[in-house]
Amino acid sequence: MIGGGRAGLMILPSLALAFWIIGYPIYDVIMAAVHEVNRFGKLRDFVGIGNFQTLAADPIFWGSLWRTVIWTVGVVGGTLLLSLPIALILNDDFYGRGLMRVIIMLPWAVSLTMTAIVWKWSLHGQYGMVNETLQDLGILDRPVEWLATADIAFPVEILVGILVSIPFTTTVFLGGLASLPGEIYEAARIDGANAWQRFTKLTMPLLKSFFNIALVLNVIHVFNSFPIIWVMTKGDPANGTDILVTYLYKLAFQYGRIGDAAAMSLIMFAILLTFTIVYARMQMKQSAGARP
Amino acid sequence: MSKARKSVLYWLILSPLLLVILFPYTVMLSTALKDRTEIFVFDPTWWPRELKWSNFVDMWHAVGFGQALVNSLIISGLSVALVLLVAIPAGYATARFQFKGQGAYRQFLLITQMLSPIVLIIGIFRMMATLGFVDQPVALILAYGAFNMAFATWMLQSFFETIPKELEESAWIDGATWFQSLRMIFLPMALPALAVTAILTFVNTWNEFVLALSLLRSQDSYTLTLKIYSLVGAAYRINWEHVMAATLLATVPVAIVFAWMQRYMVKGLSLGGVK
């Protein structure tokens, strides 16, 4: 066994890069959050929690925070709900399984930006194929302007979010199903357990840790997800589809409220850190408990 | 239930979802091959009256596709090089050595992975501006390097752990130095792992949006993803046949590579990161 010195040397480049490109910006954001910052990014007077107070008095911030909750719960909840039966089906043996797997994984292979661009065009009020198809099927009797009002646009964006999150989540579940030991199913069958009992008493409890992992990773990922909403509606009309990430971008790069944006970054950082800690705890508990 | 009946049932249950998944790709293909006069009509059709392959050529010149393609290739290529440069030694160290603070180092990697660029975008932008890197490829290369490093390290570590240590040890007995054994024995065996990690990092950086949107300012320096977005984001009259042709051209090669690599990534996820 070669000692710690060489290992330290080998992890040094990664530490240096992360402290420079991720660590320094954290410091900079903290500084900007507690100072008055002018449009050009120059730090002025120390204001303490002044920027946070400005945010707290900003109704769009609260609206964005609330929509972030709906967005995250909606996308992650819908994804988990759909992905479990999909994984159970894909784990079974049937004709055309390979083809179905390729189709279901397809959205994973395309960048979110491109997916959102194509959906934006498909949902076009006058020339889009969504309206055309739904009218041909007799579901709609006149075209709908899908992205023109927040009431319709935001749920549509949540649906697109679900669609692109299914592949990863299904993959995690498939990994979980593959790791289930076959013998206990055999034993349960011999003892007279029917398919439903085997599912609720064996599959569900054994999948629980995979479910938790899919939940936490999806929450973190969806919370941070920017391209779908930005491409389809830019958080508009009238900030009606803004979530925290899109409002943060507007504050920083369009409204020139850099101090407020920095304060918002820290709030989001705190939310994310909480999830990270939950995730790390879960991972530790799992490796402490499950290993023989 | 027989296998045939089960198959019919499964396909029926999932058919709505499959249709919704395939819908946008059909739209993409259909629009990319239509003549402009056929796009902005009421009651649009799926099948183009004539297949207008020249859309791709027109689009290439009209939007400056070539320049954006070169930018993306340079930025993604150099980002991959940077990621490998820091992740190979880090992955080797965590796979082969036991060192003080290894647990802390793992936590550190986890945190860098949880922080998305958007949360730090102000700090990153201000730092790059101070360094004079805004609108330069180097800004994106550094940022992509830092944000993709943790995942690459996990992937490499889990692959490296499967390479038997005895091979290196027997080389030492034969008088090879540690560095020689690394270069002559370990790295050649790790080549498939390096390729997989490189390609996945490449796809990630190729598709990245927020950092490119924030750090690139002029059309000439846009990556492909940003260029195609700019066709939709700014213009008041959008040439959708060009946008869809460009989207198709930018998406399909990456999608094929990704689909092929996916099983390796799942393996890496289950061995290293998620476990």
Task: Describe the structure in your own words.
The complex is a heterodimer of chains A (292) and B (275). Chain A is mainly α and 292 residues long. Chain A has helices at 4-33, 50-56, 59-91, 97-109, 112-122, 129-136, 150-178, 182-190, 195-223, 227-232, 244-253, 258-289; strands spanning 35-37, 43-46. Chain A has a two-stranded antiparallel sheet. In chain A, strand 1 and strand 2 form a beta hairpin. In chain A, helix 3 runs antiparallel to helix 9, helix 7 (150-178) packs across helix 9 (195-223) and helix 11 (244-253) runs antiparallel to helix 12 (258-289). In chain A, 41% of the residues are buried. The mean pLDDT of chain A is 87. With 275 residues, chain B is mainly α. Helices cover 77% and strands 0% of the residues of chain B. The two termini of chain B are 35 Å apart. Chain B has helices at residues 3-32, 36-39, 54-63, 65-96, 102-114, 121-131, 137-160, 165-173, 178-207, 210-215, 224-233, 240-273. Chains A and B meet through helix 1, helix 3, helix 4, helix 5 and helix 6 of A and helix 1, helix 4, helix 5, helix 6 and helix 7 of B.
